[in-house]
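Field reference: sequence -> structure
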Amino acid sequence: MALLERHDTGAVAHLRMSAPERLNALSDEMLAALKAQIDALGEDRTIRAVVISGEGKAFCAGHDLKQMQQGRQTEDGGKAYFAALFARCTEVMTGLQRLPQPVIAQVHGIATAAGCQLVASCDLAVAAEGTRFGVNGVNIGLFCSTPMVALTRNIPRKQAFEMLSTGRFVEAEEARQMGLINRVVPGAQLADATAELAETVAGKLGAAVKIGKEAFYAQAQMGIDEAYAHAGQVMVENMLWRDTEEGIAAFLEKRSPDWTQ
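Structure field:
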């Protein structure tokens, strides 16, 4: 069985982390598999939404601690290995946001440390009731500094710092209220609810969602005046497309649009 399984349903790609015995930890091998799929999806214009899930009793428990301890067995005590590991993890997390397709986390069980970072790095997230989220590295003496980057761009600062500094876990409904996830559903409905959201996104004009996702993350890093100027330019470009003209005409004429993209 592959470490990361992919199957496509129409325009939706489903990526399932398949290392349940390790709680789908982000091992060197798992990060490499995720990076390979991200690279492939970035070039795949038939896919309009991506779902990431985990097999077994957990979504993802973060970095593989046993593997990290093995990385210490070098002359520099693991310094170069750890630097490379966190750089590769960052490449995966930022790669998800750079994909043209919206990425949805389908979360159950636990999402801890870099696993919580993975949820925060996805564009959308649906969680099963009873799911627990934590950036709990501080409990073992390791502050979750890289997960912090994604977390603080999802939830308010004081709530983020409390999670980071205490190692406290939050339940799914609290995570939704904070803004870490979009929806909480019964566990039996998780796959269907996530698929429904993915299919809704995939049903939109792909080029419009792509340009919108790029603009969404770009403007979030800008001051308000620069953000409005950038967003205005994006809307002008979008409005000039043939498919956008067709979409507006179809709406006014109360019919389905005849899109080419």
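Note: The two ends are 35 Å apart (CA to CA).
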